[in-house]
Amino acid sequence: MTRKSPPRQLARIAWPAMLLLASAACGGNYPNSTFLPNTEFNRDVTSLWNTMLLWGTVVFVIVEVILIAAIVRYRRRPNSPEPEQVHGNTAMEITWTVLPLFILAIIAVPTVRNIWKYQGEAPADALQVQVIGHQWWWEFRYPQYKITTANELYIQANRAVRFELQTVDVIHSFWIPALGGKRDLVNNRTNILWFTPDSTGEQGFIGSCNEYCGSSHANMRFRAYTVNAANFESWAKHQAANAVYPPPAPVVPAAAAVPTSNIGAATQDPATVTPPAPAAPSTGYEFPREQLGAHLVPGTPLPASLKFNEALLANASAERGLQTYSRSACIGCHKIRGNPSSMGILGPDLTHIASRHTIAAGLFPNDAKHMAYWIKNAVTMKPGAKMQVFGIGEMDAVMKRPMTTQGGLTDEQIADVVAYLRTLK
Ligand code: HEC
Ligand SMILES: [Cu+2]
Fold first, then answer.
1. Same domain, 324 and 209
2. For burial by CB atoms within 10 Å, which of 27, 61, 92, 351 has the most?
3. What is the distance in A from the centroid of ligand 2 to the CA of 220?
4. Are residues 414 and 310 in the same domain?
5. Domain-embedded: residue 174
6. Measured on CA atoms in the order 307, 310, 315, 318, is the torsion positive or negative?
7. Nearest CA to ligand 1 atom 14
8. How many domains does the chain have?
9. Would residue 93 count as lying in a domain?
């Protein structure tokens, strides 16, 4: 045959293609990589991976060298005699059984040790977080601080965090690739996971569900923020407090002119110090919006079929919104501590909803516009969402007919409700 053999032609294209592919791995910035050394957990995982890669490479090279040598050395030649026939070789068989055992032990022992370590005892001063999986959002509770929040996890830099993982419905899986995980949330069981973020604080990370859990599995994400101790305390103190409505006017108390560190200082005569005005509840620390990396800002487009009169948002009334909210079905599914009618627990806690950067488990930015579309028709915004539609005329999947004025809301009413929720910093 004179024709060039196809494998050779293929090899000519394959080499440059492989090089190109390999070099692509060197560029770019991967904020969601599990090899980022932000916790002792991830460093241990990386070291395990390196061990496996090393031993895998050693085995691969030895096997390939023997294989290629055997192919070349013992290939069929013209007129070669029948090779010697052998059956069994005890020494060799023992060698190729013992060697892999030895290699497996090198890999298995540290792997199992790590699994036990990170589901075992966490450092005593660890921050405790209960993670509760819901189709399709995350509830976070901080028993030490009496906080319940959703989809945004504040943790402290340089303080271990111990997660208790539970689910209310199906199996989910908790993972923040750049920090640690993943570990399943299994019914009737509490799984433990702990690690210590050693970032300097003010860093945002992506978390997600990693066990298929239904139609919006891919939309079940969350944000994790590592913050320093002072900011964490400030955030926690505010989150633990009830929602305040009407929102405190931004009054500047007279005492504000006095630096707080001087109040009550020994050098001052207590009689001459004007008692500070009742402190207006501060909004507490919030992870700065500017610090959110591009990968942390949701870019999900609004569904084209969903319409909302956005002009209404400008003149909405939070006062009317509070009335509408408090007599709508919202209160049966959502809790707003400080609004005694709102006691539901099926949906995310909305006590401080306006202090979060995203809604719907990281799917949309938390602004008036997205919230309005969400309330109008959550199911169109997020497939399967377990929040009913409210927009009058929107298809109600349960009743199988468009939503009516019975329980439905006009765009104007929705805009008011949004104005109310936006006050809940
Ligand atoms: C049948 C229960 C139910 C009712 C009624 C309900 N919601 Fe929801 N709501 C949910 C659930 C469940 C979610 C989370 C959906 C998801 O992310 O998958 C949610 C999410 C939200 C969110 C986003 C919260 C976040 O942190 O992501 C807002 C805001 C909201 N609801 C407002 C309202 C308002 C306002 C009403 C009333 C007009 C209302 N909800 C009625 C169940 C309900
Ligand atoms: Cu899930």
1. no
2. 351
3. 6
4. yes
5. yes
6. positive
7. 347
8. 2
9. no
Please name which ligand lies nearest the alpha carbon of 212.
2
Domain presence at residue 285? no
354 alpha carbon, closest ligand: 1
Q: Residues near ligand 1 with C-beta < 6 Å?
A: 136-137, 150-151, 325, 328-330, 332-334, 346-348, 353, 356, 359-361, 371, 374-375, 382, 385-388, 390, 417, 421
> Which residue's C-alpha comes closest to atom 39 of ligand 1?
330
From the CA of 281, how far away is ligand 2's center (Å)? 36
How many C-beta neighbours within 10 Å does residue 390 have?
A: 23
Domain of residue 330 covers 296-422
Pocket test for ligand 1, best of 334, 336, 357, 382 (most atoms within 8 A of CB): 334
pLDDT tens sequence across 152-188: 999 999 999 999 999 999 999 999 999 999 999 999 9
Residue 176 CA to ligand 1 center (angstroms) comes to 24
How many CB atoms lie under 10 A from the CB of residue 314?
A: 9
Give the SS3 label for residue 145: coil
- Smallest CA-to-CA distance from 281 within 238, 318, 319 is with 238
The verdict on 225 and 333 lying in the same domain is no
The protein residue with its alpha carbon nearest to ligand 1, atom 34, reads 330
Is residue 261 included in any domain, yes or no?
no
* Residue 379 CA to ligand 2 centre (angstroms): 17
* Side chain identity at residue 361, one-letter code: A
CATH number of the domain that residue 175 is part of: 2.60.40.420
Q: Which atom of ligand 1 is nearest to the CA of 219?
A: 18
Q: Which residue's alpha carbon is at the smallest distance from atom 26 of ligand 1?
A: 359
Write out pLDDT tens, residues 78-114. 888 888 888 989 999 999 999 889 988 988 999 999 9
As a whole number of Å, the CA-based R_g of the chain is 30
User: What CATH number does residue 309 fall under?
Assistant: 1.10.760.10
From 185, 219, 234, the end of a domain falls on 234
Residue 37, CA atoms < 13 Å, CB-side half-sphere: 5
pTM reported for the whole predicted model: 0.85
